[in-house]
Amino acid sequence: MKKKVTIYDIARELNITVSTVSRALNDSRSISTETKDQVREMARKMNYSPNKLAASLKSGKTFTIGVIVPSARVQFFAAVIHSIELNLKAAGYGILLYQTNESLENEKQGVQTLLEAQVDGIFASLSLETSEDISHWEAVIKQGKALVLFDRTLENFNVPSVTLNDFKAGYLAAEHLLKKNFRNITFIAPPQKISIFKQRVEGYLAALRDYGAPVHENTVRYGTLSIEGGKAEIRNMMGVSPLPDAVIAGDDFTALGVIRQLKEEGLPADRVAVMGFANEVFSGFITPSLTTVEQQPHKMGAECARIFLSMVKKKNPYENPEKVVLEPILVERESTEGEARPPERP
Amino acid sequence: MKKKVTIYDIARELNITVSTVSRALNDSRSISTETKDQVREMARKMNYSPNKLAASLKSGKTFTIGVIVPSARVQFFAAVIHSIELNLKAAGYGILLYQTNESLENEKQGVQTLLEAQVDGIFASLSLETSEDISHWEAVIKQGKALVLFDRTLENFNVPSVTLNDFKAGYLAAEHLLKKNFRNITFIAPPQKISIFKQRVEGYLAALRDYGAPVHENTVRYGTLSIEGGKAEIRNMMGVSPLPDAVIAGDDFTALGVIRQLKEEGLPADRVAVMGFANEVFSGFITPSLTTVEQQPHKMGAECARIFLSMVKKKNPYENPEKVVLEPILVERESTEGEARPPERP
DNA sequence: TTGAAAGCGCTACCAC
DNA sequence: GTGGTAGCGCTTTCAA
């Protein structure tokens, strides 16, 4: 393990100064072509590798951005991360990853860690616990760092963001079922009041109203979003209330749980129409294949990158925060193909 | 956007020197408790946030490690990344992510970028293109950085690594089928000669030999690992050769493609037994559910972290490179439940 | 227990 | 077009 070679070594070897070497390496216009060539050649020969840390310390730019997500192994976030890395790499930026595991405490810790690492900006999707307490996010802005929120944001927090049109997503889902004459439609949402689900529920309720479908207190059920959570909801429903004609689950995993539990309860496959959100990889391959709403993670990552890149150019990046809203896309599959049952007459 | 507060500001405010502040903040034993308290209190009050860049430049340690993977949106890698981040965060390290998209060129670029960022170590899973040319990896070692390879490694490259027992994985898969009296078993592997598939194929062939099953030139077929690749292989087989009793696909996606194409060809679901590798999320939920081999991504990430942490303590980290080999786990499901057809008599 | 001062490797400003 | 040099914010000897 030999000592690292620096621009001083190159300068000494070539009998010029570090300023010249630095400028040559950065392709400054004020350096002659011959000097540049000499320096580059010597750098190659000496196996020089720049220390970006030193450059960053001096220049104040690290060319890394922090990405905060609840979990990198969730398909959707993995896809967004993939897209962010791809798009930002092209612009010379690196990605520092931080997972919150849905905890506000971790989220705060993440912001602090990334800030100390002097990242040029932070892209984040909020934890389920995040709501009132956003002091850590305000700190990011106060430090003059670029902040871009994606997918899970806060309603009254006026920062650049890329989200899905969640109201429309909920509306789209409900409307799809209503058009097929399903009337009793239950929505399974998580108890946490984060923006995206509030809006999906609202969109769903709006559709029910528009189509004159019944809304009662059990129309929206609050449960855990997971396979187990979906199963549990069906078990609960079997006990007390009459089964709905259709179920909209908060995500594809929950929808899968619903389908499986219905099967276990011995009900015919098309007794209850089921749909989810996210268009997970498995959703097209299960039986019945799952109708769902595509959330465009790839586009979301690309838009985050684009917004960030435009922010760094502005003098006042938060002046008119750009808020991109992506359109949800309905993906129709077998799980909602069944016939709606004729409405019950009293 | 106010000027950042540094230890100089704290020192001035408290009428002490930066050395004292630095030591107090780092909880040095040579500082009195009162001074520490004073400094910490003042730091809090002034909203001080340390600049890790400066500390790293001086100390030579960044407490970040680079993670290089083919793609972060592949389930398996996403799960490993998740695990690495979790385990390393606990030890105070951050994760710098780099995707190669299976390109050797990108992989080299990634190593260079991470090295320039002065990461303390690199965890990597090699691209499909990587084989002879490993100069970039040797550079990592020469720089005295910790290198840990996982999942996809090179046979004759003697560095710390965490892999699956791929020979056994292949053997396990074949044996599972052989025990059920399947005899004509085809293996679909990628054309690239990367270690993990070579060894899986060898394990598979060893099992065929051990059980006296036939091995001919079409026993191993080389194709693309993807849903489309799996479909294509089946189409090709339909044309020329008699269909095998069972197919072992290189991964779950390919296995899924095989299953779907068999269905499209109008064959009964249990005409050909199918299995894959990776235990993707969807594999348990498709019809028929897919028999596969679990690769333990979570454990793999944890082991990478553990090895790295032990390496940084050693004076000569590469002396006796630790090579962890994880055991593959057979996950039996419906896709291999069919009856083996009686052997054909000539 | 604290202070003074020398850098870590690079950039950028000011001279010439 | 090139040189000299002062830091960026922190750690870390060496002295006191």
Name of the level-1 CATH class of the largest domain in chain A? Alpha Beta
Which strand order does the major sheet of chain A show?
2-1-3-4-5-11
Number of helices, counting only DSSP H or I runs of 4 residues or more of chain A: 12
Helix/strand/pairing category of chain A: alpha/beta
Largest interface: A-B, 46 and 46 residues
What is the helical fraction of chain A, as a range of percent? 40-55%
- Give the beta-strand count of chain A: 12
Order of helices and strands of chain A: HHHHEHEHEHEEHEHEHEHEEHEE
Oligomer: homodimer
| CATH superfamily descriptor of the largest domain in chain A | Response regulator
> What fraction of the residues of chain A are assigned to beta strands by DSSP?
5-15%
Q: Uncertain segments of chain A of ≥5 residues (pLDDT<50)?
A: none
* Overall geometry of chain A: elongated
Rg estimate of chain A, integer Å = 26 Å
What is the makeup of the main sheet of chain A? Answer: 6 strands, parallel
Structural notes for this entry:
2 copies of one chain form a homodimer. Chain A has helices at 7-14, 18-25, 33-45, 52-59, 75-89, 104-116, 135-142, 166-179, 195-210, 227-239, 252-264, 297-311, and strands at 64-69, 94-99, 121-124, 146-150, 161-164, 185-189, 220-222, 246-249, 273-275, 292-294, 323-326, 329-331. Chain A has 346 residues and is an alpha/beta fold. Chain A folds into 3 domains: 1-39, no CATH class; 62-163 and 297-326, Response regulator (Rossmann fold, 3-Layer(aba) Sandwich), CATH 3.40.50.2300; 166-295 and 331-336, Rossmann fold (3-Layer(aba) Sandwich), CATH 3.40.50.2300. The first copy, chain A, has a 6-stranded parallel sheet with strand order 2-1-3-4-5-11, with helices on both faces. In chain A, strands 7-6-8-9 form a 4-stranded parallel sheet. Chain A has a two-stranded antiparallel ribbon with strand order 10-12. In chain A, strand 6 (185-189), helix 9 (195-210) and strand 7 (220-222) form a beta-alpha-beta unit. In chain A, helix 1 (7-14) packs across helix 2 (18-25) and helix 5 (75-89) packs parallel to helix 12. The radius of gyration of chain A is 26 Å and the shape is elongated. Chain A starts with 6 loop residues before the first helix and ends in a 15-residue tail after the last strand. The model of chain A has no long low-confidence stretch (mean pLDDT 93). Chains A and B meet through helix 4, helix 5, strand 2 and helix 6 of A and helix 4, helix 5, strand 2 and helix 6 of B.
